[in-house]
Known about the structure:
Elements: H1 2-32, H2 49-52, E1 116-118, E2 124-126, H3 139-151, H4 156-166, H5 172-180, H6 184-200, E3 203-213, E4 216-224, E5 229-234, H7 239-246, E6 253-254, H8 257-265, H9 270-278, E7 283-284, H10 287-296, H11 308-323, E8 331-334, E9 344-347, H12 349-357, H13 364-389, H14 393-407, H15 414-425, H16 427-430, H17 432-435, H18 444-460, H19 466-484, H20 489-496, H21 508-514
Parallel strand pairs: 3-8, 8-9
Antiparallel strand pairs: 1-2, 3-4, 4-5, 6-7
Helix pairs in contact: 3-20, 6-19, 6-21, 7-11, 8-11, 12-13, 13-14, 14-15
Amino acid sequence: MEGLTALVLRLLEENAVLREQNAALRDEVARLKGGSGRPSLKPGASSGMDKATAPSAGHKPGKRRRRGSTKAKLVIHEERTLEAAEPRGGRFKGYAGFVVQDLLIRPHVTNFRRECWQTADGRTVMAPLPEGIDGHFGPELRRFVLAQYHQGQVTVPRLVTLLSAIGIAISKRQVVRLLIDGKGRFVEEAHEVLRTGLEAAGWVTVDDTGARHEARNGFCTQIGNDRFAWFATTGSKSRLNFLELLRAGHGDYVINAEALAYMRSRSLAGPLIAMLAEQDDKQFADRAAWQAHLERLAITTLKVTPDPVRIATEGALWGSVKAHGLLRDTVIVSDDAGQFNVGRHGLCWVHAERLVHKLDTFTDKTRAAQQRTRRLIWRFYGDLKAYRRDPTPQRRAALRARLDRIFRRRTGFAALDGLLKRLHANKDELLVVLDRPEVPLHTNGSENDIRCQVTKRRISGATRSDIGRDCRDAFLGLMKTCAKQRISFWDYLGDRLRVPDAPDVPPLQNLVRQIPSTA
């Protein structure tokens, strides 16, 4: 009977996997036929582990916190006095204020009459345009277009309709040019933010999501923490691609001690590592130079596992990251996706618990085992959060021993026991917080940041040009960074576009560098 019960449970688990695969195939067929398929609902979204273990707000129940005066936050631009009919025998008692917020949106067309002079040698000298004028659309209009498209998530056709209704003579092509032409300085500032963030950050969280570019499926990767955010859309989500992104715009390949250590950790053959270390050439300007070096050493002709070209290239990329002073002692926290497992790595507890939460249970016994395990994980997670607020050596040792007890349990539920064994193998990555209390226990920040990319994908679809893709990623990253630095994205655009009377906004990378990252 025990053998038959185990067989039935195994068959039920296999049946559940096959049902899920069948449903995924039906959804893919529906999408290919133009349908939408099932809604994408995360199985663990309802677990609520992080919110349930959050400390109370601390305010007394029954007392609501006051918002504060709205008028005190406003700048009065105009004062108007309204007269009342004087009553007979009345006495004047002063004025009663009534503040009204309004918005002035109207076209403003300026014809600059530029003086022209001809010099004695035949040259023409013309009066320069005012600062901020770049083309036939002024800086205020360009700021409005950028803010509406990136922050307001308004599509290009709707922007054209809106501007035309206001009275601006503009075409769809001109709006697209306002979004992408001459925006190289914004893309470079976004790269500077990433470089500074990776130099100064004690930790970063990472995530990725699907993206479309040039009618092909790709992936958008997010890197950031509580001080900055950065996005990049590429055609791959491999570890090789992630290491290329971690170079933060640098294009070289470097063989140094860190690169060789990476190759050893990925089981590259010892003779190949020694051969790469013995060569005089240690730095290569680009991919072509690095590929030529591998061909000279005949590494590209080897057909073994693991692929020596891939491992050596990953190592050279990691060497470049370290050579530029990036990720010195930075912990990379991820959801356990393999491509993010580089350097000092930490795992998200919310995703770990989600694996337990989404297990299919078929009997009361397996269901009870699942719920009992989830309760233990929730309590442990709550104590980890308490440890971050007040770390002590005694609590650190106790938490390490307690994790062993939770994840070495045998519940009798084969799928759950296998999962607990796999999670226990990641003990060091789950408990990074014990040595580095500032590191977060989850990747919620990255998931929140990357939602703007998902929204943009659903509203505007794919990008068609590389500069369009780079501008979209750069502006969304800059917008998120501004929000984390408590800077108005509207003010940021005004300063960069030289809008008259716009407040000064320092380079964002300087702000990212000023305060060390804390969770």
